[in-house]
Specification:
four-stranded antiparallel sheet; mainly beta; seven-stranded mixed sheet; 0% helix
Length: 121
Amino acid sequence: QVQLVESGGGLVQAGGSLRLSCAASGSIFSINAMGWHRQAPGKQRELVAIISSGGIRNYADSVKGRFTISRDNAKNTVYLQMNSLNSEDTAVYYCNVDVGIRWDSALVRYWGQGTQVTVSS
């Protein structure tokens, strides 16, 4: 089994910053892509940012230039630095990690429990 533990959410004023972390542990042989999604009330979950095992990053247009995704492979951890936050960034943020538990197994996507980010105007 693989567990993901998220941290770093909270309440911040518009224009402020937060840093989310997501640490993976358990039966991990390899990790491929790591990413962040978010879901606002009444809306579908959407991709925020993703980083490949080789460090290639992709961002949603709405966060480009404000958010930065990074990873620490030694710690099996992915981060999301969020700057210049606005009310539209208010959502529950979920990390996801694509894990292989053996050298010959298919990748399985695991999800974090979600962390609330609330931006007050």
